[in-house]
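Friendly challenge for the regulars: who can give me the structure tokens for this chain first? No prize, just bragging rights.
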Amino acid sequence: MPELPEVETTLRGLAPHLTGQQVGDVIIRNPRLRWPIPADLPELLRGHTIRRMWRRAKYLLVEFDHGTLILHLGMSGSLRILTGSAPALPHEHFDLLLQNGTLMRLRDPRRFGAVLWHEGDIAAHPQLASLGPEPLEKEFTGDYLYAATRKRKAAIKLLIMDNHMVVGVGNIYANEALFRAGIKPQLAAGKLSRERCTLLCKTTREVLRAAIKKGGSSLRDYVDSDGKQGYFQQEYFVYGKAGEPCRRCGTTVKQIRQGQRASFYCPHCQR
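First reply, four minutes later:
Bragging rights claimed.
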């Protein structure tokens, strides 16, 4: 499933092609995604200019003067920049065609992605209104994390994957950030000291920035806007490494289940 680094990589690939361009048409081949694509989207967007494109959590936001197009990649989605003559293949459900002949195409085999429209304050949209701070922004600090985790018995890994706590830290990067911080994923969040909270914020940013630099992780379906795979999976310390020796100390990496997701950790390096 695309996580924050993959979505950020997609954004950086799309924005130069879309920003400042006028929409020529919208093609909806299959509206049945996680939520139905609005049927009137072609009428809403034709002739309008894209003012900017940005990201909130794992949502890509295409901003117009009269509203915002909300895009989400779901579990298997990708957005590609193509020429207007490119034939549609299976699972390619949505095209945004620009007046200059370029198009942005959504491919989503599992159809858990989203194409939505919102007029007014985008921060008030139901999918965005309750989101926590961005992990790469100044609001995500050790003091914030320390205050938010007091008296919390839930495992720290589950909390940093909670979008109400901090957005966009999915399973892969939570595992890797906790390893770098030396914190075991099952530790009760309320037991973390202020210093360890500060360290975890630091390692979370480090992991996410390193992943963005490598174009994200490609484990199954993910490709960027140019159709290229990411390469951060080559730098994992613990994710998917159960039964292998830890790259730091040689201890066997263990795997447990937390919240229906796999967690990986080194019992020597993480406490």
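The helical segments are 4-18, 41-45, 142-149, 156-160, 171-181, 194-213. The chain has six helices and ten strands. Your move, everyone else.
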